[in-house]
Amino acid sequence: MESIHDKTLQAIERSVSRMFWLLLLSKSIPSSPSTLAKRKDLQSNMTREVKLKFNGEEIIADLCWPYSDGTFLEDFGTKIESQSSLHNVLGNDSHDVIELENEIIGGISSEIRDSIVHLFRSYSNLMIILREEYLQKRGSTSETCRRSIKAIGEWFFTIITSEIHQLPENFSLEKSIKPVSIEDWSDIIRDSLIQPSTQFLRVHDDATVFIHGGNFQLELTTKRYLEKIISDTIELALQTKLALPNEDPISSNLGGVNHNTNRISALLSGVCCLKLFMTLYDVDRGANTG
């Protein structure tokens, strides 16, 4: 039988873990995703700048919190009804979570819209899995995930700020399908790491149908935006470092490994960005047009 001391200790450990994930979801993932690609064995804690109210006055302080040793699924499991990872962390399925998500996004984008919140939910689930793959794996796989975190994080920040006009205007969270789940992202990333070209071609085909054969009318600018994601991904994946005639064989081999990592990272990032964008559109939503 567990003692009161054991139960208290477990409750404290859960609270510490919950606070870590709350900081990760509310601060790191939306506004500084590059911090996700730092090995936790090189850092003893997470430091984030937060706004606090003290004696009625708002102040800015650095909040330090130890890293969690567990994975998200180990710490919180999954909830079929959850629309957001924050639901799992806070144990709250009420409208309060949506208000928190609006506040998080509001710190980056001047416009608060349902489409951004929905995108943020899928994006957060993706970054959780990429971070865990980066920390748990070694070698080229870890490096591929690190580069993908950086690329996808930059894409997310750009689309909710300078490219926000690419998002659907008439999006409704109440009518939308669920965001891409952590489990789905796990499968997508695993398959993309094993067969990057095959996975990209599949998503490329889906995107082509989406652009030219969807049951809704996309704006021309939106079509061109998606086509640019595809063309940029292909161009980056095809870039290669040519070995010089006098180049040291060891250096040449390292260059080959680096090129392969670049290629897989480019394809993985392209797959994820295309899926993130397309999840904002669905024929069942009807009214959502670009």
Describe, in plain words, how this protein is organized in 3D:
A hairpin with a 2-residue loop joins β1 and β2. The chain is built from ten helices and two strands; from the N terminus they run αββααααααααα. It has a two-stranded antiparallel sheet. It has one domain. α5 packs across α7. With 290 residues, it is mainly alpha-helical.
Instruction: Choose one word for the global shape.
Output: globular
List the strand order in the largest sheet.
1-2
How many strands in all? 2
Strand % is: 5-15%
Mean of residue pLDDT values: 79
Span of the ends, CA to CA: 59 Å
**Sequence of secondary-structure elements:** HEEHHHHHHHHH
What is the oligomeric state here? single chain
Poorly predicted parts: 241-256, 283-290
Largest sheet report:
2 strands, antiparallel
Features:
globular; disordered C terminus; mainly alpha
What's the short version?
Helix content is 60%, strand content 7%.
What topology emerges from the helices and strands here?
Blueprint: H1 4-31, E1 45-54, E2 57-66, H2 72-76, H3 85-90, H4 95-106, H5 114-136, H6 139-159, H7 182-194, H8 196-213, H9 220-238, H10 249-278
Antiparallel strand pairs: 1-2
Helix pairs in contact: 5-6, 5-7, 6-10, 7-8, 7-10, 8-9, 8-10, 9-10
